[in-house]
Structure formats: C-alpha cells, structure tokens
Task: structure prediction
Amino acid sequence: MSTLDAGNLTATHTHSQTVGGTTRLTQVVTEVVQPAYGLETLVTRLTPHEWRRRLLHMSPGLLVVLLLLIPHADPLGLPARLILPVVIGATSWFALSSEALYRRRGEREWSTSVVSYGVITTSLLLAFPGQPEIGMAVTMIIAFGDGSATLAGLLVRGRRLPWNIAKSWAGSAAFVMCAIPLATLVYWAEARPGVTLALASACVAPAALAAALVESLPIRVNDNICVGVVAGLTMLLTQALFVGW
Result:
C-alpha cells in the first residue's frame, strides 16, 4: 500500500517481505513532488484588500475606453472639457473618502497617489484638447502599466532587479507588455486624423519604456507622479517628432 504526505506530496510505499517465516514491513520513499502553483495559489497570494486596490488603480483605464465609445468632437468640445474634470474629480474623491478600503497599513502617500493621478490625467486632456489621445494613452500607461507591474510583482515575485531589490523583473516586464499594446490601441483609435498602428506605437512605446524604467528606480517620489510625468513628457516629444501638431 502507499501513503501520501500532503505537505510535500511525498509518495511512500510499504512493502512486505517474508524472511525465515517472519514477515517484515519496509517503507521506501520513492518520490518527492513539490506542490504546483496553480491559478488558485496565485490569486490567494493577494488579500482582498490588495485586489480592491489594484482594481481601483486600473479603473481610470476603463473610463478611457468608455470615452472612446461615446461620440465626441475633435478637438474636445466645451461639454467634454467640463464633464471630464467632474468625472475624474468624482473618482478621486471616492478614492480619498474610501481610504480605509484601499490604503496599505502604514502608508502615508495615499492622498498624494490619488491627487497626482487625477491632476496629471486631467491636465493632459485639458491642455491638449486637439490631441486627447495623448492624455488617454498616458492614462492607460499609469492605469495598466504601473498597475500590472505591482500586480505581477506581488503575484509572480521572482528575481529582483539588480538596481532595486524592491522591484522584480516580472513587474517591469508586465509594465511594458500591458502598457504598450493597450496605450497604442487607445492612441490609434482616438487620433484624428487617423494614424497607422505602427505610427501610434512609435509615439507610445518610448513613453511606456521610459515610464517603466523610472518606475523601477529606487527613488522616493510617488510612482504615479514619476510614471505620469515621464510618460507625458515623452509622449509630447514623440508626438512632435512623428506626428506633429
């Protein structure tokens, strides 16, 4: 017969042997199998509190998709320029008023994260109403690039970056893999006059890569500020170089 150790999945087989009329029992450990990490194991690595926090961080990206689906003028008309700050402000107010649901224990930068997120995205949308794709793409980089970097870092973990042991290669890879395609699609869908996907990617990819790099650095400035400012400035540069004003 055989038994199974639930901790390490150790298969132990019991054998009987008759020697000189006496039966002896021997046990032989034949295999040790480490537990596999399935989807359920990965999901439970994050507390419900952290999952709520990740969803909140990514929610502005869903607002960008909603804006794409709502017919609007280009450049953004007065109604849109009035509604957008209200919607972003309401989202920020909700995040601030529900701080206990999202703030990590001992965290002191929650208000800074929320306010900087809202200010950067609103500023880009209002400052360049003729190129709303810039603000929308930067919002996607913050929402899904920075958001997925933290998510992958907490779930996958893995090797640390040599220049910052608080960050992982998995997190940086997730940042780039999520930010570039999603922000490129948003930029391409919103740009007027239309641009090719290759041109949209040329405008977005450098911003996402620069933002991923600054997010990985061991600096004390809030990630939302670093990622948003670097992505925004880089997008303004690539817009001028590849598309023009």
